[in-house]
Amino acid sequence: MATLDAVNGATLEDVHIDEQGHQVKVTLRTREAHNVTDHTLVLQGVTDFSFADHLPGLNSGTTVASVDTEHDTESIRLTFSFGSEAAALTLSCAKVVLRRNRQPE
Questions:
Q1: What's the total number of domains in the chain?
Q2: What torsion do the CA atoms of 103, 81, 71, 28 make, to the nearest 10 degrees?
Q3: Which branch of life, at top level (predicted)?
Q4: Is the pTM for the entire model greater than 0.90?
């Protein structure tokens, strides 16, 4: 998804998991020139969620190295890599909604 290229290099602000609603919200922040943009990815119809972390932990402020996507007819698989090959967040969902909120810094 080309629109997710904008979050490469962003910092992780929050991951909220709604198990009953099968939804995950990932909030990321980017800084450009004199603007801060919060990107909220609302992942709906989540069927698979995994976090591989061989580091002390994934915390707010961790940098997103890349977001890789794979599509098939029924789902989207996203893999967020965080500055190290040892840390990754992977999930499968039916739909991705991206919301952006840009503010002057």
A1: 1
A2: -20
A3: Bacteria
A4: no
Measured distance CA(13)–CA(27) in Å, rounded: 5
Domain boundaries, position 81: 2-104
Cβ proximity of 44 and 22 under 8 Å? yes
Provide mean pLDDT across the span 73-78: 92
Provide the residue type at 14 as one letter: D
The per-residue b/e assignment along 5-34, b for 16 or more CB within 10 angstroms, e otherwise, is ebbeebbbeebeeeeeeebbbbbbbbeeee
Residue 2 scores a pLDDT above 60: no
